[in-house]
Amino acid sequence: MFIRQLNYVVALAREQHFGRAAAACNVSQPALSGAIRSIEEELGVVIVQRGRRFEGFTADGERVLAWARRVLADCEGLRQDARAGGNDPVGVLRMGAIPAALPLVPRLTQDCLRRHPRLKHEVYTLSAAEILRKIADFELDIGLSYLDDDRLGAFQTLPVFRERYVLVAADEAMFEGAASMSWSEAASLPLCLFTTNMQCRRGMDAAFAAAGVKAVPQVETDSMTVLYAHVRQAGLYGILPHSVLCLAEGAEQLRWRPMSPQLQRDIGLVVLAQQPHAPVLDAALRSFRDLDLQGWVDGLLGAAPQPTS
Question: Pick from 307, 277, 278, 18: which is nearest to 167 by CA?
Answer without folding.
Answer: 307
